[in-house]
Design a protein that fits this description.
Layout lengths: L2 E6 L3 H13 L3 E6 L5 H10 L13 H11 L3 E5 L4 H11 L3 E4 L12 E5 L10 E4 L8 H14 L7 E5 L11 H14 L4 E5 L6 H8 L5 E3 L9 H7 L2 E5 L3 H7 L6 E5 L8 H11 L4 E2 L14 H11 L2
Parallel strand pairs: 1-2, 1-3, 3-4, 4-5, 5-6, 7-8, 7-10, 8-9, 10-11, 11-12
Helix pairs in contact: 3-4, 5-8, 6-7
């Protein structure tokens, strides 16, 4: 299988999206760590981006990239996040390999990338090489979900034919998961899902107080992230007839509306009515991908299909 060389800053949200893009393009991902050795070098990358082909190798990545390119003969370079954007263009010029940036590379020239995949909720600029996508990228390979679901069932044997799941996030600058709010939401979830198995997972951002609220409810399957780092979400999205997801994570919502056949219910914990999170939630609801849960259940099982985007990108890259 042809490969993609992924420049990674080690952040799961960036690395997983890069892997998902490689898989969507039919390329095997090969990871190459990409971090600036000092903050000064990263700061210099912005003005140095204006130098074009005379720009220096500020991240010290070129020798390692040459070795990786000789070993794996990558068909494309992929990177997400500000630690990778400058190096993507540097390696594109040095190695002659097309490059794709994920997320809008703010502060850098948009030229020099063969393509930029940017979520529409970020309001990306209109440029010929910018391809807006409705959600974040999520894993595309069916075998990933099969393996993760099998691992889930080694931990939990379902006793009912129908299941619903709750995915709980945490506080960020525009959202909160207060114990009182969460308790009210979970009471409403239980009231509307009689006869179903009920599964739940918290996340790395869920506070101890919120986890205590979750722990007090009689879920049939319960993962408290502070006690167990297993990821049950692939099983949730493929097996449940309904998913309840807090609005504080574009990644969790993206996976819920991209995979499986579940109705998606958004537990709206946003504290700011404007910005990308609010735009994302409203768009998902307006276009039938999700329903804002206010004690009643909706009918929102439409799923995002990125296959046309991947096909257009393959053509652009000459794959």
């Amino acid at each position: 299988m042809p490969t993609a060389l992924i420049l990674t800053d080690g952040k799961p949200g960036h690395e997983n999206q890069s892997k998902a893009l490689a898989e969507g393009l039919g390329l095997e991902p090969r990871l190459l760590p990409c971090l600036y050795p000092t903050r000064l070098r990263k700061a210099l990358s912005y003005p140095c981006d204006r130098l074009g082909r005379w720009a220096p190798d500020l991240a010290g990545i070129l020798p390692r990239a040459r070795a990786a390119a000789e070993e794996h003969a990558p068909a494309a370079l992929i990177g997400a996040g500000s630690n990778t954007f400058y190096s993507l263009k540097l390696l594109r010029r040095a190695l002659g390999i097309p490059c794709v940036a994920i997320l809008t590379p703010g502060g850098y020239r948009l030229g020099g990338f063969d393509a930029i995949l940017a979520p529409a909720f970020d309001n990306p600029p209109e440029r010929p090489n910018v391809l807006p996508i409705p959600t974040n990228l999520t894993p595309a390979r069916p075998d990933f979900y099969r393996l993760q679901t099998a691992a889930f069932h080694e931990r939990h044997v379902a006793r009912k034919d129908r299941a619903v799941a709750v995915i709980v996030g945490g506080r960020n600058p525009v959202a909160d998961v207060s114990p009182d709010w969460l308790r009210t939401q979970l009471e409403a979830v239980f009231a509307t899902t009689e006869g179903c198995e009920r599964w739940v997972t918290t996340s790395r951002r869920t506070s101890p107080e919120a986890e205590a609220v979750v722990d007090a409810f009689p879920f049939d399957y319960k993962l408290i992230f502070s006690r167990d780092r297993f990821n049950p979400i692939p099983a949730f999205v493929t097996e449940c007839e309904r998913l309840f997801v807090t609005a504080d994570s574009t990644g969790m919502l993206s996976e819920a509306v991209a995979v499986g056949h579940a109705n998606v219910e958004i537990l709206d914990n946003l504290t700011v009515a404007t910005g990308k999170f609010a735009r994302f939630v409203q768009t998902l609801c307006d276009e039938g991908y999700a329903h804002r849960f206010e004690g009643d259940l909706g009918d929102a099982r439409r799923k995002v299909d990125l296959a046309p985007t991947f096909a257009a990108l393959r053509a652009r890259l000459g794959l």
